[in-house]
Please model this.
Amino acid sequence: MRVEVVAVGTELLLGQIVDSNSSWIGEQLALAGLDSYFQTKVGDNLTRIAEVIELALSRSDAVICTGGLGPTQDDLTREAIARVMGVELEESEEAAERIIAMFGGRGRRMSMNNLRQAMKPVGAEFIPEQPGTAPGLICPLERPDPLTGEAVPKVIYAVPGVPWEMQEMVSGTVLADLQRRAGITSSIASRTLRTWGESESGLAEMLAGRMDELDRLADSGAPAATIAFLASGGEGLKVRLTAKAATAEGVADILAAEEQVVRGLLGGLVFGVDDDTMESVVLDLLRERGMTLGVAESLTGGMVGSRLCDVPGASDVFRGSVVSYASDVKFELLGVPEGPVVTEDAARAMALGARRVLRTDVGIAVTGVAGPERQEDRPAGTVCLAVAIGEPGSAGQGECLLDSIEVRLPGRRRQVREFSVISLLGLLRRHLLEI
Amino acid sequence: MRVEVVAVGTELLLGQIVDSNSSWIGEQLALAGLDSYFQTKVGDNLTRIAEVIELALSRSDAVICTGGLGPTQDDLTREAIARVMGVELEESEEAAERIIAMFGGRGRRMSMNNLRQAMKPVGAEFIPEQPGTAPGLICPLERPDPLTGEAVPKVIYAVPGVPWEMQEMVSGTVLADLQRRAGITSSIASRTLRTWGESESGLAEMLAGRMDELDRLADSGAPAATIAFLASGGEGLKVRLTAKAATAEGVADILAAEEQVVRGLLGGLVFGVDDDTMESVVLDLLRERGMTLGVAESLTGGMVGSRLCDVPGASDVFRGSVVSYASDVKFELLGVPEGPVVTEDAARAMALGARRVLRTDVGIAVTGVAGPERQEDRPAGTVCLAVAIGEPGSAGQGECLLDSIEVRLPGRRRQVREFSVISLLGLLRRHLLEI
Model:
């Protein structure tokens, strides 16, 4: 079954908003075992929206439209679908009542325009999920087969352009409805192993034997996962396992078994699964060990702290960060000995300083050259990382394990800084696993 | 003249990469006075790429293809264009030599595949800019007019998918070539005024009279700019002025005059122009005044420091930041009196602490509730900001001006944190302008 995505909105064509909705839907379709060969962006123009939907129907079985469901005269997706279906729009009394109630409840002024959102093409149904004011639509229709002329059932979905509203409708209704129409009775799912510390070609080499084996298994009709790599910059490299089986339990079994095999081959390179991030993993490891964390940053300027704070519940582990951008601040506040600051020695002194000043069990530090210019005669990308790990509850007092490394990170200024963050947290993770 | 964008790459359809290239190109086309009604994403499939290009030619005068110019067998844009043109690919000796020289110079291994990048459809030309290994293409062709059957000249451009390579070619060659073909002899340009502190509807109200006036001027054929608003989240609201005239000088004159008028109406809300950011503006103001800056952050976790460090040359002004995520760190390191920390008093103490601890002339601080949970019984979005401004060279010593405000920021956790950053820097800017 082929599915196309049509993103509606002049602001998308003008580049005022980047269309990330189509990308997200494309990813979900692939995971659901549905093919998608084209994605189109079109402006807020009735004729052109209808033209694009008609074209999509001519080469695919289903079309998902995102955007253009708002209350204003510019929001034309409903009208365009009605035109393609060859029907009128009708007001749904139920939807109208819901909209009126919504505005009443929030004490907001409603204009007559808002009732446009209660309109649907005759023959269409509303999508049950409705996280915002815009209802989504399921619009079945028929088109003649180009060869036989026989009527073939097709379907158009309309979901809002607001990402979380769109996502709730696609995950809640659209994907399952598509799978039912496609006669996909088998279940499909994937699991992503998050890795850090090896290149894509390195990972591919480590998994080459297993991937060949999986190909042979699949050829023989045996249940087998597939493996794919996704480079994700400062988020590391993702190894995605996908499996298909008659039941959801069957899929879960294949994925669990394959995860064991791949983890066996990749060892400590795998730092997490699916939504895990290096930040969340490190915070969990520290929490389990009853340890608090303090950071000293230089070239990252606060990115390490900011990323840690992105994780809900970080506050029981992460106490703070000293961003010592000026060398003076490293010397005065963190107690780094005066001298060059792009060195492992400086990084170690910074980690000890962070631990002491912030009174944490663990201190970590990063200093280096973000570029583009050299600094202290070291090239851009030169980064020194250090960890200082004391006993749980030591709060900056007493002995601690001290380690450091120097690395040469690739890319431009922004990449160097992003890679610095994950490199530092990755170093801490390696040490915590040994405790 | 109508121009379509075709983004090539299966990874775009699968959502592994978000297609931001089309958005960027769309923005440039609009600024160049060229219409663009459709943008399409298509996978690495020869037939489908050719089909999409053919379709685009049927409804537009020019097509810009981005992606699919790499050296591997998956990179099929060259082949697809040759098919659409009805010609063969030929190797360019000059391009081949350049590729061989590039690999030689970098000491990298070259495979025969790399020579695929020296191929071009017969009749095509290379784009002069070539920042990477992939040459771009200009491919003129003809298509019959659907009504008269007369041959109409059309053109396909191929640029790489790597954003900065694509941008260099589009800015350097493609836009001017399109304008020449479109017979656009007039010049068009725009200037963006960056604002902070007023809502979109508020700005629209302040400029409504002027916008009516510009409409009347335009209707009467007089030279007049146009005004558009672009909401940019934590970057503030942009007011874009666009003007068209016979010469570049004429455009510059209209824009300069209009900027004066709009600045007169918006006053201090305008913090910068075009590529200015609130960070760069504040750093410039401090630099002019010979002042150094220290930051104390809580809910932002390091974002203020990180954003300041994004600005090249920040190091002569920005000395560092104390990320005091735990209340203890606020009390111990910054000297905030023990007690509630989501208060203006706490923010003021943090600003003074940052100034003292980091030995800077100016200290700024932010504390608040990022959400989703309440904290100290204050709702998510409650944010307290403070500035402590001493004499230039005071380095944390002596008297200082102290000010603070409490604001209620909208949105979810991430938005609250982003708005906190610009709100804090905006407050500092207001005070610096009075010095």
About this structure: The radius of gyration of chain A is 27 Å.
